[in-house]
Each structure stands twice: as structure tokens, then as C-alpha cells.
Design a protein that fits this description.
320 residues, alpha+beta, 4-stranded antiparallel sheet, two-stranded antiparallel ribbon, 12% strand, elongated
Length: 320
């Protein structure tokens, strides 16, 4: 009897783990890739509801044996109808989130998309093997999937700026180091954006409004950064977007798109006034810029030249 109870508990935990791992994956994709609000909000109700139903089925099986039973001698018997209901519902969550991910494939970087799309395959294969032979329990598959979520989350924490949701200085520097170290005559494109007037906003309206200005600038950057680029907050009120030239448009094109997005945002200015920023754009081969330091220095110089041009007087003697 104790042995039977242990087997029943172990099997039940196996199926509960199946549900929880898929739910964690869906939740993580929802909030980190698709966004915490917007048109994907309904998905949260769907995948959370499916998880709740499946956990209820697992709980009911402890008393009614609707999914599976374990004989006193340890033999495992599957009740196929409810087992397939459970499996279908569980992977319906994964399918819904995969469709949502693929619908955003134009704006999600390829490396990120591939990691998240491959994630459900591990528990799916384990589940199919288990259905083919109920005596085989690949519990380790769920541990691998859970570790994958943990690794992705830790990587995001290490490379994310908390305030803006963009990459941080470490991410942009690591990416540039990789491109300049591994590339042979590769052309790297970059844009540096400096938020104008942040000190004034902080002094006159408070740091909360300053944070709003940074968040608004970052949302403009996110919306116009090339798909395979690395957009990051380099420090303070400075941002960098960098990408390999063969994986995106020219920097002048992106700079123009940023200016257009800024103008659109200023059609309904915030309480602290319109947003403004200065842009430096460069297209630089690895022969012209030998390392990331030279690349960023050139970007910085071009950005400050753009800022200086704004302050030059017009012909009527007034400042720009």
C-alpha cells in the first residue's frame, strides 16, 4: 500500500510538472517577448485556464482514476480518453503561444525566436514517448525545459536595462566584441541617440517624468530598431543600436525612421513637453574601425556633432 501511494504520487507529479512547465514557458514568452499588455492580453486567460483545467484533471485522477490507474503490483494502466484530453489541452497552450510568436517573427530577433520555438519540443517528445510506452517516464525532459527557462531568464536579467527594457551596456559591448573579433571585413552599422533636455525635465518636473521620457525614447527605439540589431541603453540618456550591415537597412534609413517616430510621438506631447534627441549614425567596416572602442568613439563624435548643429544660430540670430 505505501509503495502504491508513492507510485501514484510520482506519476501525478509527473503530469503536474508537464502542465506547470508549459505554463511557465507561456507566461515567460507572454511577458518578455510578446509584451505585458496589448492585443495578446486574452492569451493569458486562455493558457492559464488550460493549466488550471489540467491540474484539476490530475487532482481528480487521485480519487477517480480517470487518466490512469496503478495496480497493487505496480502495473500502470492508461485511460486513453482523458489522457488524450490532458495532452491535447496541454499542447494547445504551446501551439497558441507558438502561433503568437510566429506572428511577431518580423520584429523578434531570430536567435530569440528559435530558442522559444524549440523549447516545447523537449516535453512534447517526452510526452509522445510516454504515450507510446507508459512504462517510460522521461521526467528529466521537464527538468531540462525548466532549466532552459531559467537560463533564458538569467541571460535576460544580465543583459537587460530594468527601466527601459532595452539591452544594457554589457550586451552592446559583448555584441560588438563578438562582431569585431570574429568578422572578416564585416560592415557594422550603428546609431547613437542622446536624449536632449533630460536634466531640464528632471529639474523642472521631477525624476519620475525623466524616467517617462527615457521610457518613451526607448519605445521609439524598439519600434524602429532593425530586427537583428541590438538596441541598448548605453548609459544615462544615451542609447545605441548596432547591427551587421548584411542583416538590416542602412543607418541613415533607421535614423530617418527614428525622427519620424519622434515627430509622431510629439503630436500628443507629454506633460513635460515634447521629446527630442540627437542622432549620430555610422556605417563602419572592421578595417576602418579596428575594435568596439573606435566604433563607439566615432558614433559618439557624430552624435555630438548633430547636437552641436542644433545649437548653431539661424540666419535671424536665433538659436535652433
Amino acid at each position: 500500500e505505501p509503495f502504491h501511494a508513492v507510485l501514484l504520487a510520482a506519476k501525478s507529479l509527473y503530469f503536474a510538472a508537464n502542465t506547470v512547465v508549459i505554463w511557465i514557458w507561456a507566461f515567460y514568452v507572454d511577458y518578455t517577448v510578446l509584451g505585458a499588455s496589448g492585443r495578446f492580453k486574452t492569451l493569458r486567460v486562455v493558457y492559464t485556464g488550460i493549466a488550471a483545467v489540467n491540474l484539476a484533471i490530475v487532482a481528480a485522477n487521485l480519487f477517480a482514476g480517470c487518466m490512469f490507474t496503478i495496480a497493487p503490483d505496480g502495473r500502470f494502466a492508461v485511460h486513453e480518453l482523458w489522457m488524450w484530453v490532458f495532452t491535447t489541452l496541454n499542447y494547445l497552450s504551446a501551439l497558441i503561444m507558438l502561433i503568437a510568436l510566429l506572428s511577431q517573427s518580423k520584429v523578434i530577433r531570430r536567435g530569440v525566436l528559435v530558442r522559444f520555438v524549440l523549447f516545447p519540443l523537449i516535453p512534447l517528445v517526452a510526452e509522445l514517448v510516454h504515450l507510446a510506452d507508459p512504462n517510460i517516464v522521461l521526467t528529466c525532459a521537464y527538468a531540462v525545459s525548466a532549466m532552459m527557462v531559467y537560463q533564458i531568464s538569467q541571460n535576460d536579467l544580465a543583459y537587460s536595462d530594468e527601466l527601459t527594457g532595452l539591452g544594457n551596456r554589457r550586451q552592446i559591448v559583448d555584441s560588438l566584441n563578438r562582431w569585431f573579433r570574429d568578422a572578416h571585413e564585416t560592415v557594422v552599422c550603428g546609431i547613437m541617440i542622446d536624449l536632449d533636455g533630460l536634466k531640464r525635465i528632471n529639474d523642472e518636473h521631477g525624476h519620475a517624468c525623466g524616467d517617462e521620457a527615457l521610457a518613451l525614447a526607448s519605445s521609439i527605439i524598439k519600434s524602429k530598431a532593425p530586427k537583428e540589431s541590438v538596441p541598448a541603453r548605453y548609459g544615462g540618456d544615451e542609447f545605441i543600436i548596432a547591427w551587421c550591415a548584411d542583416e538590416g537597412p542602412g543607418p541613415e534609413t533607421v535614423a530617418a525612421q527614428l525622427e519620424e517616430a519622434k515627430a509622431a510621438a510629439n503630436e500628443t506631447p507629454a506633460s513635460w513637453g515634447p521629446i527630442d534627441f540627437s542622432i549620430g549614425a555610422v556605417r563602419c567596416s572592421t578595417k576602418e574601425c579596428r575594435n568596439p572602442t573606435e566604433f563607439i568613439a566615432r558614433l559618439d563624435s557624430l552624435m555630438y556633432e548633430a547636437k552641436r548643429q542644433k545649437k548653431l544660430p539661424h540666419a535671424d540670430g536665433k538659436a535652433c
